[in-house]
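Tokens as discussed.
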């Protein structure tokens, strides 16, 4: 058999092998290769000390090679967050969420990073010399600055009016009876009144003595 025939047989075998590879198998091979690459970069990140820029570049290259994967962006966001670079951390976390909206790590970095940025901004505002002085005036200046920044005329919309809680009345010892449904008017219950106290009677005036110097005890007869 000539060499040409042998080479042709080998080529045909390779071609048939390629044709027998299913799409699922190709996806599995790509996933295995991606997981291996991700594990290698994770190991490099764990061993790296000091500057993490080389590791970030490795994750970025892995994200470029696998544009539908969100894990590399989550790893980048975590590195930026640990370094206190919250703006870059939020940007990387948003890239991860575009590819994997269910990533809890990316959501956490976005939320906590945003809060820390807000806290830092408020701290910087507190150091502003133009805000020193009366607390009430500072509050108005800060509110005006926030309205201007957010483009809102009202920062906190007014909610429903709060209703006062109903006050409980003490239960009466003798509650009034329920009104009758009959046409006759109900007999009013007389309210108990305290017994009147008899006023002391004035002492009778002593009789005037009779003329002639009579017996003064004659009035008692």
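Sequence:
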């Amino acid at each position: 058999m000539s060499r040409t025939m042998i080479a042709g047989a080998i080529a045909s075998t390779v071609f048939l092998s390629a044709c027998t590879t299913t799409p699922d198998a190709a996806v599995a091979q790509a996933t295995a290769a991606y997981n291996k690459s991700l594990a290698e970069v994770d190991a490099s990140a764990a061993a790296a000390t000091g500057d993490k820029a080389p590791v970030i570049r490795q994750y970025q290259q892995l994200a470029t090679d696998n544009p539908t994967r969100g894990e590399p962006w989550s790893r980048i966001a975590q590195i930026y967050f640990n370094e206190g670079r919250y703006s870059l951390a939020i940007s990387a976390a948003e890239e991860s969420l575009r590819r994997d909206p269910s990533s809890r790590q990316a959501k956490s970095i976005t939320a906590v990073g945003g809060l820390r940025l807000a806290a830092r901004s408020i701290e910087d505002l507190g150091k502003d010399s133009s805000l020193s002085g009366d607390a009430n005036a500072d509050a108005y200046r800060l509110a005006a600055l926030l309205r201007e920044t957010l483009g809102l005329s009202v920062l906190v919309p007014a909610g429903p009016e709060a209703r006062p809680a109903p006050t409980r009345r003490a239960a009466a010892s003798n509650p009034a009876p329920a009104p009758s449904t009959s046409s006759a008017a109900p007999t009013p219950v007389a309210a108990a009144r305290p017994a009147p106290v008899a006023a002391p009677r004035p002492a009778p005036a002593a009789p005037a003595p009779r003329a002639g110097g009579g017996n003064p005890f004659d009035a008692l007869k």
